[in-house]
Specification:
This protein has 21 helices and 26 strands. With about 750 residues, it is an alpha+beta fold. Helix 9 packs antiparallel against helix 10. It is elongated, with a radius of gyration of 52 Å. About 0% of the residues have low confidence.
């Protein structure tokens, strides 16, 4: 029988041989040795328990040491100064030196005989940096600074500098916060020998201190060296374990209050002596030979098992490594998926309003067009939306308030659409709605009216109420375009028409809008070159004194003649110039040309020239002031002979920069005129705040003034108000003698 394949049989044979030896030994000395062993075991157990109490007292003293140190005022003083922000240069260094001196003195006092109790003791701050040490300096890695006990020292068994060590570690707390750690390493073998009496007492031939969890030998003395200590199995209390020579007892006793047990070894031969009978010796020799052969075979099997176990442990370690790598890989994949989702959300949604952005809504629009084209029925609605007067909130209360308004508007819009619809923010105050399932075109009108009603309620921003309207431009697939680009362009054109019609309205796209847009683009292309091509010219409308008929001023009227477009009236190209920003260049040209022409009217006397300014020119007030100053300087025209006409819409914005610019112009001597008074939000408040010299009554009031109609009363009231504010009055659109005579009786100045 090949016992290598049947290790249980080999163990059985060895057991039988050992049993034979034990039977012979028990038979030879059953009565005598039985009583002696019991007596020896009882006495050894009592000795071991007493030694365990000594070890317990030793560990209790160490806990007291920690409480003494942590209660020392030196430590509290140092961390109190440090918590107050005291630097090393201003007092904290003195506290630290006192702490280090106190720790060193403590370490030097703690001895048993001439043997120091601690191999190392040190204070660490919360980050692990050393604050103070005893006699020994910092050891190598392995100090468990992050595993300290909170309210009492924690006893740890770990390897420090390659040695198995007992470590005491407790958190240092200040005002219930962890501010550091106190760590001490016992001077293990020497102190253990001192406690056990070097030999472990008269009964014990050797002793070992072992941690309970994990079962790791810590210190040993006597016949138990470090190598054999690691091989010792954990005996039950009172259990006899036969080792090598079969002549020893191994006992254990727990150490109260500490995670250790004390294991003692008793040599029976030392206590009882050897039996000297020759027969016993021969029999014992023969049995010992059999035991040795059996043990050798068992060792062989054990070595074989160890090799298998090593391979098994290596395989398990490799499996654990692969498992850990798999976990790390899964975490990395999860992080990447999360990052991709976050990037996808950022790429498809607006960060402020959480609405879909242009990219996502265009993708959904493309899918909706394909679906409707495939099914051959239904409509797709594209609605461009723009918040009316959003810039006023943004400029008045700032960008934070503007962002709050956008968020509130986004919530209103989102709540008014169905689940399959999409509301997106394109940027600024522009929104786009996509309704992919419109059954009838009239349904689109219902949606638009519902949206307009939704914005009739005020917005509350920073305790201010704002009535912000909504303008919409609507385009339907397939009748208004067959592609996403065409639908968006046509909806944008419809939105422009809605805003141009007075805002707070909606418009459906029509082909007429497309033609108007083409004409507008064509006109804009020519207008951009009008100044360079010398296509602009000025006409002058004389302004006369009502009473004397003398010409006192002339109003510059801009005209544009293009070879292709012919004569273009100002009401057609001026709004286009303001929308596109071309008005900046045209306005500068008008100022320069009007000042130069006025400078040549010296033969007419002190005749002023009046020039209309666009609201757009006040977007950059300093540039406007520079343009006016340059025009006067180049023409050598006195400032008093220049009059600038402004519209009421400029004053409604109530911008401090505009008031500063007007004060600067007025201070220069330039006359300021409020144009078309009575047609807009005419108010005495801004007439008092702004430095105007002239008030111009709109020509619409002149239509039936001669017949003493309602307009005559309004004109009389306006003139009276102007007189109260010490403003000069000009009546526009006077065409008959009767009108002049009536204005003269009403005390109007100019016409």
């Amino acid at each position: 029988m090949d016992l290598r394949r049947f290790p249980n049989q080999a163990i059985l044979i060895a057991g039988i041989l050992l049993l034979t030896l034990l039977v012979v030994l028990i038979g030879a000395s059953y009565f005598e040795q039985g009583h002696l062993r019991e007596s020896v075991a009882s006495q050894a157990r009592l000795t071991l328990e007493n030694k365990a109490l000594d070890v317990e007292h030793f560990f209790a003293d160490r806990r007291d040491d920690f409480q003494t140190l942590l209660g020392d005022p030196t430590i509290n003083s140092y961390f109190a100064n440090r918590a107050l922000g005291m630097s090393l240069a201003y007092g904290l260094r003195a506290s630290l030196m006192t702490l280090r001196r106190r720790l060193r003195q403590f370490d030097e006092r703690k001895q048993i005989g001439d043997t120091p109790i601690y191999r190392y003791i040190g204070f660490f701050d919360a980050s692990g940096e050393i604050l103070a040490e005893g006699r020994a300096r910092q050891l190598g890695p392995g100090l468990p600074v992050d595993h300290c006990g909170k309210d009492e020292p924690r006893v740890l068994v770990t390897r420090v500098d390659g040695l198995t060590s007992v470590v005491y570690c407790q958190q240092v707390r200040y005002k219930h916060e962890r501010v550091g750690s106190l760590v001490a390493i016992l001077n293990g073998p020497d102190i253990f020998a001192e406690i056990m009496g070097n030999d472990g007492g008269e009964m014990l031939s050797g002793a070992m201190l072992r941690a309970v969890s994990p079962p790791l030998s810590v210190f040993s003395i006597g016949s138990v060296d470090a190598a054999s200590a690691e091989r010792l199995s954990l005996p039950e209390a009172g259990e006899q374990v036969v080792v090598g020579d079969g002549d020893s007892l191994r006992l254990r006793a727990p150490v109260p209050g500490a995670p250790f047990m004390l294991i003692g070894v008793v040599s029976l031969s030392d206590v009882l002596g050897y039996l000297s009978s020759p027969v016993f010796v021969h029999v014992l020799t023969g049995l010992a030979l059999l035991v040795m052969l059996g043990t050798a075979y068992l060792l062989y099997l054990n070595n074989h098992n160890l090799a298998l176990r090593a391979r098994f442990l290596a395989a398990r370690e490799q499996e654990a490594t692969l498992s850990q790598q798999n976990i790390l890989l899964q975490r990395e994949v999860s992080k990447r998926i999360s990052a991709e989702r976050r990037l996808s959300h950022q790429a498809n949604y607006d960060s402020l309003t959480r609405l879909p952005n242009r990219h996502l809504v265009l993708d959904r629009l493309s899918q909706a067009l394909k679906r409707v084209a495939r099914e051959g029925e239904g409509y797709v609605l594209v609605a461009f939306m723009d918040l009316d007067h959003f810039k006023q909130v943004n400029d008045t209360l700032g960008h934070v308030a503007g962002d709050q308004l956008l968020v509130q508007a986004a919530r209103r819009l989102s709540s008014s659409f169905r689940g399959g619809d999409t509301v997106a923010r394109l940027g600024g105050d522009e929104f786009l709605a996509l309704c992919p399932d419109i059954r009838e075109p009239r349904h689109a009108e219902d949606i638009a009216e519902k949206l307009l009603e939704l914005f009739e309620e005020p917005f509350v921003i920073q305790d201010h109420e704002f009535y912000i309207g909504l303008s919409l431009g609507l385009a339907l697939y397939p009748q208004d375009g067959e592609s996403s680009e065409q639908l968006l362009k046509n909806a944008d054109l419809a939105l422009y028409q809605a805003k141009d019609a007075g805002r707070g309205q909606f418009r459906f796209f029509t082909e007429a809008m497309n033609r108007d847009a083409h004409r507008r683009v064509h006109m804009e292309a020519h207008l951009r070159h009008a100044v360079a091509n010398n296509e602009l010219h000025l006409l002058y409308q004389p302004i006369q004194c009502v009473k004397s008929g003398r010409i006192v001023a002339a109003e510059a009227l801009l005209r544009w003649r293009n070879d292709e477009l012919g004569d273009v009236m100002p009401d057609r190209f001026i709004p286009l110039a303001e929308d596109t920003g071309i008005i900046e260049e045209i306005g500068a040209w008008v100022l320069q040309r009007a000042c130069r022409d006025a400078a040549g009217w010296q033969h007419l006397g002190e005749v002023r020239v009046a020039v209309n300014l666009s609201t757009r020119q006040f977007n950059l007030p300093q540039r406007l002031l520079g343009t006016v100053e340059q025009a006067l300087s180049v023409a050598e025209l006195p400032a008093e002979r220049l009059e600038l006409e402004l519209t009421e819409s400029l004053l409604l914005q109530e911008q401090p920069e505009v008031l500063e610019a007007l004060n600067a112009l007025h201070g220069r001597g330039i006359r300021l005129s409020i144009d078309d008074f009575g047609t807009g939000y005419s108010s005495m408040s801004y007439l008092r705040r702004y430095p105007f010299d002239v008030l111009k009554i709109d020509r619409s009031f002149m239509q039936d003034i001669a017949s003493q109609g309602a307009n005559a009363s309004l004109v009389e009231a306006i003139i009276a108000m102007a007189r109260a504010l010490r403003l000069e009055v000009i009546a526009e659109g006077v065409e008959s003698i009767e009108q002049v005579q009536l204005l003269s009786r009403l005390d109007c100045d100019l016409a």
